[in-house]
Amino acid sequence: MSILDAAGSAARQQFWVWWAMLAVAVAVSLGVYALWFYTFCRREPASRTPREERRIMLRWVLGGGIALPVVSIVALLVFAAPTGRGMLPFPEGEAERIEVIGHQWWWEVRYPGEGEEREVVTANRLVMPAGEPVDFHLTSDDVIHAFWIPRLGGKRDMVPGRDSIVRLEADSPGVFGAQCAEYCGAQHTHMLLHVEALERDAFDAWLAERRSSPELQPGFDQAREAFGEHCAACHAVAGFPDELVVDDLEHDIRGPDLSDIGSRPTLGAGVLPMEEGAIAYWLQHHQTLKPGNRMPPHHHIDTETLHEIGAWLETLEP
Ligand code: CUA
User: Model-level pTM?
Assistant: First the structure.
Protein backbone atom coordinates (compact mmCIF):
# COMPACT_ATOMS: atom_id res chain seq x y z
CA MET A 1 0.00 0.00 0.00
CA SER A 2 2.80 2.45 -0.78
CA ILE A 3 2.14 5.61 -2.78
CA LEU A 4 5.81 5.42 -3.78
CA ASP A 5 5.09 2.23 -5.72
CA ALA A 6 2.67 3.77 -8.22
CA ALA A 7 0.80 1.36 -10.48
CA GLY A 8 -1.47 3.77 -12.37
CA SER A 9 -1.42 7.14 -14.11
CA ALA A 10 -3.09 9.14 -11.32
CA ALA A 11 -0.83 7.57 -8.71
CA ARG A 12 2.25 8.37 -10.79
CA GLN A 13 1.29 12.03 -11.01
CA GLN A 14 0.60 12.11 -7.29
CA PHE A 15 3.99 10.50 -6.72
CA TRP A 16 5.70 13.49 -8.38
CA VAL A 17 3.58 15.98 -6.44
CA TRP A 18 4.64 14.18 -3.28
CA TRP A 19 8.33 14.47 -4.17
CA ALA A 20 7.94 18.10 -5.21
CA MET A 21 6.29 18.95 -1.89
CA LEU A 22 8.99 17.09 -0.01
CA ALA A 23 11.70 18.97 -1.93
CA VAL A 24 10.08 22.37 -1.20
CA ALA A 25 9.58 21.44 2.46
CA VAL A 26 13.21 20.36 2.79
CA ALA A 27 14.45 23.55 1.08
CA VAL A 28 12.33 25.75 3.38
CA SER A 29 13.49 23.84 6.47
CA LEU A 30 17.14 24.15 5.48
CA GLY A 31 16.66 27.87 4.82
CA VAL A 32 15.13 28.38 8.26
CA TYR A 33 17.91 26.41 9.98
CA ALA A 34 20.52 28.41 8.08
CA LEU A 35 19.00 31.70 9.20
CA TRP A 36 18.74 30.45 12.74
CA PHE A 37 22.39 29.48 12.70
CA TYR A 38 23.30 32.83 11.20
CA THR A 39 21.63 34.74 14.05
CA PHE A 40 23.95 33.01 16.51
CA CYS A 41 27.09 33.64 14.49
CA ARG A 42 26.78 37.18 13.24
CA ARG A 43 28.04 40.14 15.12
CA GLU A 44 25.44 42.75 16.07
CA PRO A 45 26.15 46.21 14.68
CA ALA A 46 26.79 48.71 17.42
CA SER A 47 23.54 50.58 16.94
CA ARG A 48 20.72 51.10 14.44
CA THR A 49 18.46 54.02 13.89
CA PRO A 50 14.70 53.35 14.24
CA ARG A 51 14.46 53.93 10.49
CA GLU A 52 16.94 51.13 9.79
CA GLU A 53 15.11 48.82 12.21
CA ARG A 54 11.87 49.47 10.39
CA ARG A 55 13.42 48.84 6.99
CA ILE A 56 14.85 45.49 8.10
CA MET A 57 11.57 44.42 9.66
CA LEU A 58 9.59 45.34 6.54
CA ARG A 59 12.00 43.43 4.35
CA TRP A 60 11.40 40.27 6.37
CA VAL A 61 7.64 40.65 6.56
CA LEU A 62 7.22 41.34 2.85
CA GLY A 63 9.86 38.92 1.61
CA GLY A 64 9.67 36.00 4.01
CA GLY A 65 6.08 36.40 5.21
CA ILE A 66 4.28 37.24 1.95
CA ALA A 67 6.39 36.84 -1.19
CA LEU A 68 8.00 33.51 -0.33
CA PRO A 69 4.74 31.67 0.64
CA VAL A 70 2.89 33.13 -2.36
CA VAL A 71 5.58 32.05 -4.80
CA SER A 72 6.04 28.57 -3.34
CA ILE A 73 2.33 27.84 -2.94
CA VAL A 74 1.49 29.07 -6.45
CA ALA A 75 4.34 27.00 -7.87
CA LEU A 76 3.08 23.88 -6.08
CA LEU A 77 -0.48 24.61 -7.18
CA VAL A 78 0.53 24.94 -10.83
CA PHE A 79 2.42 21.68 -10.51
CA ALA A 80 -0.39 19.83 -8.68
CA ALA A 81 -3.53 21.12 -10.43
CA PRO A 82 -3.21 18.84 -13.50
CA THR A 83 -2.89 15.87 -11.12
CA GLY A 84 -6.20 16.68 -9.48
CA ARG A 85 -7.79 17.26 -12.86
CA GLY A 86 -6.52 13.90 -14.07
CA MET A 87 -8.71 12.18 -11.47
CA LEU A 88 -11.89 13.94 -12.60
CA PRO A 89 -14.25 12.03 -14.89
CA PHE A 90 -13.41 13.89 -18.15
CA PRO A 91 -14.30 13.26 -20.89
CA GLU A 92 -17.57 12.00 -19.51
CA GLY A 93 -19.07 8.60 -20.08
CA GLU A 94 -15.94 6.98 -21.44
CA ALA A 95 -15.07 4.80 -18.50
CA GLU A 96 -16.38 1.73 -16.72
CA ARG A 97 -18.69 2.75 -13.88
CA ILE A 98 -18.29 1.10 -10.49
CA GLU A 99 -20.18 2.29 -7.42
CA VAL A 100 -18.59 2.06 -4.00
CA ILE A 101 -20.56 2.75 -0.84
CA GLY A 102 -18.93 3.07 2.56
CA HIS A 103 -20.58 1.52 5.61
CA GLN A 104 -19.47 1.15 9.23
CA TRP A 105 -17.28 -0.87 8.62
CA TRP A 106 -17.31 -2.47 5.24
CA TRP A 107 -17.44 -1.67 1.54
CA GLU A 108 -20.37 -2.23 -0.76
CA VAL A 109 -19.39 -2.50 -4.44
CA ARG A 110 -22.01 -2.31 -7.19
CA TYR A 111 -21.78 -2.86 -10.93
CA PRO A 112 -24.95 -1.36 -12.42
CA GLY A 113 -26.57 -3.21 -15.30
CA GLU A 114 -27.69 -1.72 -18.58
CA GLY A 115 -31.30 -2.29 -19.60
CA GLU A 116 -32.35 -5.80 -18.62
CA GLU A 117 -28.98 -6.70 -17.13
CA ARG A 118 -28.87 -7.70 -13.50
CA GLU A 119 -26.94 -5.40 -11.20
CA VAL A 120 -24.02 -7.15 -9.55
CA VAL A 121 -23.43 -6.42 -5.87
CA THR A 122 -20.51 -7.59 -3.81
CA ALA A 123 -18.63 -6.49 -0.70
CA ASN A 124 -15.11 -5.80 0.48
CA ARG A 125 -13.68 -6.79 -2.86
CA LEU A 126 -13.38 -4.55 -5.88
CA VAL A 127 -12.67 -6.07 -9.26
CA MET A 128 -11.85 -3.63 -12.06
CA PRO A 129 -10.55 -3.77 -15.62
CA ALA A 130 -6.83 -2.95 -16.06
CA GLY A 131 -5.35 -0.65 -18.68
CA GLU A 132 -8.37 1.65 -18.96
CA PRO A 133 -9.91 4.39 -16.83
CA VAL A 134 -12.57 3.45 -14.30
CA ASP A 135 -14.99 5.95 -12.75
CA PHE A 136 -15.62 5.18 -9.11
CA HIS A 137 -18.88 6.71 -7.91
CA LEU A 138 -18.51 7.13 -4.19
CA THR A 139 -20.92 7.73 -1.37
CA SER A 140 -21.56 6.63 2.20
CA ASP A 141 -24.47 5.07 4.03
CA ASP A 142 -23.65 6.49 7.46
CA VAL A 143 -20.59 8.58 8.36
CA ILE A 144 -17.76 10.00 6.26
CA HIS A 145 -15.35 7.37 4.95
CA ALA A 146 -12.58 7.84 2.37
CA PHE A 147 -11.78 5.76 -0.67
CA TRP A 148 -8.09 5.24 -1.18
CA ILE A 149 -6.12 2.74 -3.25
CA PRO A 150 -2.61 4.05 -2.55
CA ARG A 151 -0.93 2.41 -5.56
CA LEU A 152 -3.62 3.64 -7.96
CA GLY A 153 -4.27 7.11 -6.54
CA GLY A 154 -6.94 8.97 -4.65
CA LYS A 155 -8.02 9.62 -2.01
CA ARG A 156 -11.56 10.90 -2.06
CA ASP A 157 -14.00 11.39 0.80
CA MET A 158 -17.22 9.38 0.75
CA VAL A 159 -19.88 11.71 2.10
CA PRO A 160 -23.40 10.59 3.04
CA GLY A 161 -25.98 12.02 0.64
CA ARG A 162 -23.43 13.05 -1.94
CA ASP A 163 -22.08 11.24 -5.00
CA SER A 164 -18.48 12.03 -5.81
CA ILE A 165 -16.49 10.55 -8.64
CA VAL A 166 -12.83 9.69 -8.91
CA ARG A 167 -11.29 8.32 -12.09
CA LEU A 168 -8.42 5.88 -11.61
CA GLU A 169 -6.60 3.45 -13.82
CA ALA A 170 -4.42 0.42 -13.18
CA ASP A 171 -1.57 0.01 -15.69
CA SER A 172 -1.71 -3.77 -15.65
CA PRO A 173 -3.46 -6.63 -13.87
CA GLY A 174 -2.62 -7.05 -10.22
CA VAL A 175 -3.85 -7.04 -6.65
CA PHE A 176 -3.83 -3.81 -4.67
CA GLY A 177 -4.54 -3.06 -1.04
CA ALA A 178 -6.97 -0.32 -0.10
CA GLN A 179 -7.99 1.08 3.24
CA CYS A 180 -10.61 3.50 4.47
CA ALA A 181 -8.67 6.73 4.93
CA GLU A 182 -11.00 8.76 7.14
CA TYR A 183 -11.52 7.89 10.78
CA CYS A 184 -15.06 6.51 10.87
CA GLY A 185 -15.44 4.87 14.27
CA ALA A 186 -14.10 2.06 16.41
CA GLN A 187 -13.42 -0.38 13.55
CA HIS A 188 -11.98 2.10 11.04
CA THR A 189 -8.81 -0.03 10.94
CA HIS A 190 -10.82 -3.09 9.94
CA MET A 191 -12.13 -1.47 6.79
CA LEU A 192 -9.88 -2.96 4.17
CA LEU A 193 -10.76 -3.36 0.55
CA HIS A 194 -9.20 -6.01 -1.67
CA VAL A 195 -8.74 -4.55 -5.16
CA GLU A 196 -8.05 -6.71 -8.20
CA ALA A 197 -7.38 -5.39 -11.68
CA LEU A 198 -8.04 -7.94 -14.42
CA GLU A 199 -7.49 -7.94 -18.18
CA ARG A 200 -10.63 -6.70 -19.97
CA ASP A 201 -11.64 -10.23 -21.04
CA ALA A 202 -11.20 -11.67 -17.57
CA PHE A 203 -13.10 -8.74 -16.07
CA ASP A 204 -15.99 -9.22 -18.50
CA ALA A 205 -16.08 -12.94 -17.66
CA TRP A 206 -16.01 -12.21 -13.92
CA LEU A 207 -18.93 -9.83 -14.30
CA ALA A 208 -20.89 -12.06 -16.68
CA GLU A 209 -20.71 -14.98 -14.22
CA ARG A 210 -22.35 -12.80 -11.63
CA ARG A 211 -24.88 -11.19 -13.95
CA SER A 212 -26.36 -14.51 -15.01
CA SER A 213 -29.37 -15.73 -13.04
CA PRO A 214 -28.14 -17.27 -9.83
CA GLU A 215 -28.73 -20.93 -9.11
CA LEU A 216 -28.41 -22.03 -5.53
CA GLN A 217 -26.85 -25.44 -4.98
CA PRO A 218 -29.28 -28.16 -3.98
CA GLY A 219 -29.14 -29.45 -0.40
CA PHE A 220 -28.33 -27.34 2.66
CA ASP A 221 -32.09 -27.06 3.32
CA GLN A 222 -31.67 -26.60 7.06
CA ALA A 223 -28.93 -24.03 6.59
CA ARG A 224 -31.08 -22.05 4.20
CA GLU A 225 -34.05 -22.14 6.49
CA ALA A 226 -31.90 -20.93 9.39
CA PHE A 227 -30.36 -18.24 7.18
CA GLY A 228 -33.85 -17.07 6.18
CA GLU A 229 -34.85 -16.87 9.81
CA HIS A 230 -31.75 -15.27 11.34
CA CYS A 231 -29.80 -13.52 8.60
CA ALA A 232 -31.85 -12.73 5.51
CA ALA A 233 -33.46 -9.59 6.95
CA CYS A 234 -30.09 -7.84 6.64
CA HIS A 235 -28.10 -9.93 4.14
CA ALA A 236 -29.22 -10.45 0.56
CA VAL A 237 -28.27 -13.54 -1.45
CA ALA A 238 -29.14 -13.44 -5.16
CA GLY A 239 -31.74 -16.09 -5.96
CA PHE A 240 -32.63 -16.74 -2.32
CA PRO A 241 -36.31 -17.74 -2.12
CA ASP A 242 -38.48 -14.93 -0.71
CA GLU A 243 -40.74 -17.33 1.18
CA LEU A 244 -37.86 -18.31 3.48
CA VAL A 245 -37.12 -14.73 4.53
CA VAL A 246 -38.28 -13.82 8.03
CA ASP A 247 -38.05 -10.06 8.36
CA ASP A 248 -39.36 -8.86 11.71
CA LEU A 249 -36.76 -6.18 12.27
CA GLU A 250 -37.73 -2.61 12.78
CA HIS A 251 -34.64 -1.11 11.23
CA ASP A 252 -33.23 -0.92 7.76
CA ILE A 253 -29.60 -1.59 8.56
CA ARG A 254 -28.11 -3.34 5.60
CA GLY A 255 -25.37 -5.94 5.91
CA PRO A 256 -23.09 -7.02 3.09
CA ASP A 257 -24.70 -8.80 0.12
CA LEU A 258 -23.49 -12.40 0.36
CA SER A 259 -24.26 -13.61 -3.17
CA ASP A 260 -20.63 -14.47 -3.98
CA ILE A 261 -19.16 -14.61 -0.47
CA GLY A 262 -17.51 -17.97 -1.14
CA SER A 263 -15.27 -16.36 -3.76
CA ARG A 264 -14.11 -13.44 -1.64
CA PRO A 265 -10.57 -13.35 -0.29
CA THR A 266 -11.40 -12.14 3.22
CA LEU A 267 -14.16 -11.96 5.81
CA GLY A 268 -15.16 -8.95 7.89
CA ALA A 269 -13.44 -6.47 5.50
CA GLY A 270 -10.00 -7.96 5.95
CA VAL A 271 -10.30 -9.47 9.43
CA LEU A 272 -9.99 -13.16 8.47
CA PRO A 273 -8.72 -14.92 5.36
CA MET A 274 -11.48 -16.85 3.64
CA GLU A 275 -10.80 -20.53 4.14
CA GLU A 276 -12.77 -23.61 5.05
CA GLY A 277 -14.62 -23.09 8.32
CA ALA A 278 -13.82 -19.38 8.44
CA ILE A 279 -17.43 -18.24 8.08
CA ALA A 280 -18.66 -20.46 10.93
CA TYR A 281 -15.78 -19.17 13.09
CA TRP A 282 -16.66 -15.57 12.17
CA LEU A 283 -20.33 -16.15 13.00
CA GLN A 284 -19.38 -17.29 16.51
CA HIS A 285 -16.61 -14.82 17.30
CA HIS A 286 -17.27 -11.76 15.16
CA GLN A 287 -17.88 -9.50 18.16
CA THR A 288 -14.47 -10.48 19.58
CA LEU A 289 -12.69 -10.27 16.22
CA LYS A 290 -14.29 -6.94 15.30
CA PRO A 291 -15.92 -5.47 18.42
CA GLY A 292 -18.83 -3.13 17.81
CA ASN A 293 -19.63 -4.29 14.29
CA ARG A 294 -23.31 -3.98 13.43
CA MET A 295 -24.04 -7.73 13.34
CA PRO A 296 -25.58 -8.81 16.65
CA PRO A 297 -24.02 -11.72 18.57
CA HIS A 298 -25.42 -15.17 17.79
CA HIS A 299 -25.64 -16.67 21.30
CA HIS A 300 -29.25 -17.69 20.65
CA ILE A 301 -28.32 -19.87 17.66
CA ASP A 302 -26.71 -23.23 18.39
CA THR A 303 -23.21 -23.92 17.15
CA GLU A 304 -24.29 -26.71 14.84
CA THR A 305 -26.67 -24.40 13.01
CA LEU A 306 -23.97 -21.73 12.69
CA HIS A 307 -21.67 -24.34 11.16
CA GLU A 308 -24.38 -25.36 8.71
CA ILE A 309 -25.00 -21.76 7.71
CA GLY A 310 -21.25 -21.25 7.32
CA ALA A 311 -20.83 -24.35 5.19
CA TRP A 312 -23.69 -23.28 2.92
CA LEU A 313 -22.41 -19.72 2.55
CA GLU A 314 -19.01 -21.09 1.50
CA THR A 315 -20.70 -22.67 -1.52
CA LEU A 316 -21.94 -19.28 -2.71
CA GLU A 317 -19.79 -18.46 -5.67
CA PRO A 318 -20.67 -18.21 -9.29
CU1 CUA B 1 -14.53 3.93 7.08
CU2 CUA B 1 -12.64 4.75 8.20
Answer: 0.86
